[in-house]
Here is the input.
Amino acid sequence: MAILTCMDARIRVFEIFGLIQGESHILRNAGGVVTDDMIRSLALSQRKLGTREVLIVQHTDCGLSMVTEDDFKDELEAASGLRPTWSVEAFRVVEDSVRRSVQRVRRSDFLPHTDNVRGFVYDVKLGRLTEVTDAR
Here is the structure.
């Protein structure tokens, strides 16, 4: 199994899923969203390392829900003189973001195993994991 989640340190993946070291590939980025780089990592995970299941875990109180695409790009451009070509992937409703990420995995031509993809929201205050059931 491969688990894609946010880089937020409050998400203790091994503890949440009762895993021991080496049982799963753990992929992290800001927001736990499916980007081209995550598809790249998932393709390697599936095609070369044998994973067949993908879990996407995003969380409540995520920093990406507190920014907007344009405002953050404007900030970076003002600081560096360059505007990013990549998407920030900001969102307002975490469940909607989970649904989008699940669909990106399911629709990817690079991934041979897209049937067993599930999405979750981790409540950082309650320590509770809830499946986004309509993400299937």
Q: What stands out?
A: The chain is about 35% helix and 20% strand. The longest helix spans residues 36-49.
